[in-house]
Fold this protein.
Amino acid sequence: MKIKALVVEQKDGPFVLQEIDLAPPGRGEALVRITACGVCHTDAITRAGDMPMPFPAVLGHEGAGVVEQIGPGVTEVAVGDKVIIGWPSCGTCRNCLDGEPRYCLRTGEALVSGRRFKGDQAGTTAYTRDGKPINGHFFGQSSFATHSVVTADALVKVPDEVPIDLLGPLACGLGTGAGAVLNEARPRLGDSVLIAGVGAVGLAAIMAARNSGVTRIIAADIHDNRLEMARDFGATHVINSGRQDLVAEVRAITGSTVDYAFDCTGVIKVIEQLAETIGMLGHLVLIGGAPANARFSLDHLSTLWGKRVIGVLGGGGRSGQLIPALVDLFGQGRFPFDRLVKFYDMDQIEQALEDSRSGAVIKPILRMPA
């Protein structure tokens, strides 16, 4: 079938709206009509070459829409279901079987190989142009397009009454921040948390922390307007780390250190500072994506005294557990992420990316034409 898609021809190339061909779903797959897709920092760094996705490619990985067709053997969804496209996983490796599909041993292949990675169609792409293959299946979806062929077991059904255009970012950016707190860190009653970088991921982490038993939620950023938003979403204290000494300010607020420090920046200098804000048995939680080949260093002796460093992919846990919970919290007014969103037309992708980069908009979402 003919679809419209945003194609990146080469590293650092523009997103160009084109008509391309999409194959029908195979065994275990579904065809989803994309109604909207969140725009994420990961799309930008992939275009820049920091993720090993081959070009030309269709990106986009925060898609939501309606199932239009199912392939043989699909029982998870039916035509007409509203769905969010979650992360793909093989379902058979030891981590998948242990209930940790975010850490599927084939995650790299599933997310950025540009090809289907399992089933009868493994190694092929559903996307072609003028008879030649185009790399797709980015994070299992390539949802900067009007339609997407996905593995049906990655789909998460949502109630009909929920505004589907709004929900795609729960699959990655917002789900990553919230899941890092609720799935991975799981702070205890009375714990303190520090969240550095309060864009979409950091604000989602703050909202999640507010739904836990922590009693101090400290937000750090270099932009005062974002710190004001952080207070509005639940931060009890804020630090402008561009003007204030982060470690000293944390000590002044807590009297010592925090139990959890979450990095949502991917900035190496910030990560190394955060390591100094946690004490014995404290946790440094890495969420933000750093440039390719980035390295950081820690003081060995103080780290030896019980500090933990945790990396988090996509919020951990399972899409089918995390996303419906966040949808419920949103419906109850306890996860009001709709206040972070601005909608754009599909051909406004470059403006959406620039507004996200500049901080003018926290979470851009592209609406796809019908």
Notes: The CA atoms of residues 60 and 144 lie 5 Å apart. The domain at 2-172+316-367 is CATH 3.90.180.10 (Quinone Oxidoreductase; Chain A, domain 1).
